[in-house]
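Human: I hope this is not a bother. Would you mind checking the protein record under this note? Thank you for your patience.
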Amino acid sequence: MIHQFIFASPKPGMTEEAFQDYWVNNHAVNYASKIPQIKKYIVDTRIKQENETGEPLFSGIAEIWIKPEEQIASLQTKEFLQGARLDEPNWAAFWKSLVVDTTEDYVFGDEEMTETGYVKLVRLLKRKEGLKLGTYRSDLQKVYAPMNTYFDEIKRYMLCHAVDGAYAVGEARFDSVEVFSFLNTDDLNTFIESSEYVFDIMPCLAGLVETGYLFSMTVQENWIIKGRD
């Protein structure tokens, strides 16, 4: 199953609040969710952080699960071509969007995603220059990822690697997406302020990725499609 992440921003002149409301309550429900090949669908809306300045790079993320053999077909349906695609200019700066197709290579915790409405920390990762892809993936899964399983605050953790096809004609823009799920922002802050996170987890991650390209985003999960055949 492909786990696709689509990072998106409001169209010029649209507030972040209006963008998020339109995405969750209009576009997702009336357009994107009508594409029959989509098995699961979440819209993650950005949560503003204290003391932040400037415009955010992205204001939301779509998470879409779809079978690899059905991905191309989904882009040829009338629900996409005459629905979701035509609606994009009404709310999104589509030229700024980032799409990362991944596979879930490490999952801990709520594997069936039984809870809804998690607060999540989503991160884009790019491996260090010169580090072989196989070595990077192995160390991330076997050394780094298990370090995040010892915290009661983390209800679900996913490490998703870019699909192999992303390297067919060169380097993928990002190699991985990781997602931490919490019941609330207090639990998230407890995790990232812990000594284990500061002195063990982040230094381990810094040894594997280009920290200058490390992008983090705190979001609120909004389920659109919980699961369908």
The two ends are 13 Å apart (CA to CA). The beta strands are 2-8, 40-46, 60-66, 98-109, 119-125, 156-162, 176-182, 215-225. The helical segments are 16-30, 71-74, 78-87, 133-144, 185-192, 195-206. The first helix runs from residue 16 to 30.
